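lol ok so funny story. i was supposed to be doing the assay writeup but got distracted and ended up predicting the structure for this chain instead. priorities right. anyway since i did it might as well share w the group, maybe its usefull for someone
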Amino acid sequence: MKHKSLDWLTQSPFAHRGLHHGTRGIAENSLTAFRGAIKQKIGIELDVRLSVDGEAMVFHDEMLDRLTAQTGPMAAQTAQALGAIRLFGDADDHIPSLTTALSIIRGQVPVLVEMKDVGDQNFRLCVAVRRALEGYGGPIAIMSFNPDIPAWFAKSAPQITRGLVTTEHGKGYGVFGTGKL
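and the output, tada:
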């Protein structure tokens, strides 16, 4: 089986959680941060978690407290409720769904989707992300610190590039693959 090239993973830098900057009031994982990365032609790394009703939402933290005026677990909210929650920052950004983020990015830059380990909901998150990626034409890969997540994609959606992220002394490393592992 011929594997597609992974050269796009190293051809440009990636903006971690988009091109955000707290002192300039641009929230991480926001549509404004993604538009900034696109404008600079920088790839985008973004984080996804699962809403209570099974939607892949772009948000890093388990709790809402650090990035919004809301409190409590992000996973206890519906996608509609999360979409109404304003992110801290100067722009009027709200928590986007993965589908919404990808509709803004539209393949203009490469995307790395970091799937957060959500315990016994990992299967539902995998299905939600696969659903959001259907029909997306740009360079994209999923990644996770949990090896079960890229393994699920290798078995259930082998056409999607996936990788395992590891760390050593605070330095992140990624190993990506396509096709059968």
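The chain has a mean pLDDT of 89. The CA atoms of residues 9 and 105 lie 16 Å apart.
back to the writeup now i swear
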